[in-house]
Amino acid sequence: MSEAIVASGLTRRFGDFVAVDHIDFQVRRGEIFGFLGPNGSGKSTTIRMLCGILSPSEGRAEVLGFDVARQPERVRERIGYMSQKFSLYEDLTVHENLLFYAGIYGLDARRTRERYAAAIALAGLEGRERLLAGHLSGGWKQRLALGCAAIHKPPLLFLDEPTSGVDPVSRRSFWDHLYGLAEEGTTLIVTTHYMDEAERCQRLALMYGGRICAMGTPEELRGLVGEAGRPGPSAAACPGVPGAGSGGVSLEDVFVDLVQKERARE
User: Fold this and answer.
1) What is the pTM of this model?
2) Tens digit of each residue's pLDDT (9 = 90 or more) over 69-106
3) 34: which of 74, 79, 158, 208 lies 20 to 30 Å off by Cα?
């Protein structure tokens, strides 16, 4: 399969509230794909369905060829997940956290040694192995969380607002590590509300109110809005045309324009 993820009509309700509303999208293997949207737009709920943590209320999704509703265990065996809040054990050292997650993912002794060294190098944690996780700064905690999520070398890694609350310098360094994973062939799914992070994704889905408002490369999305907010050509109308209709338009301009249009329809 050339697609790591295929979703069709994916929907999640909580009582009468529709958190994710019939979304369709595909993610190619080896791609850095982003979900951009404000808090409450449905990004995290979408990720949890794709990870097999939440069952869809309607629709379906396949992750690495496995149905998330019928085969959630097979999905979870093959992915890594990093949440928006530091969820590791703060009273354990960097070394102990990595060994714990290696055990959780079922790595044998040989694989643990190999992957431990790779995780330390990936996250740039050399010399910090004996530090308590709780004593690390926010940026170093996120690096450790990335190392733990990737210690079993999953082909698909979900990162749910991974740099929330982290300073800009640490965010840039963190993304350097993500690029390293992508170069090795790992598919990355990132949720964010930072525009600079969205620019780093190869393709984006802009979410609002549980729906995907637009989808495309950053250049294609900028083509949705002309200068001074004038409508530009649609992303679908100009595939593969970098910067089409995007002179002076930022992703923030696109997002604000789309949100205003969605609110006008409500």
Assistant:
1) 0.84
2) 999 999 999 999 998 666 789 999 999 999 999 998 99
3) 74
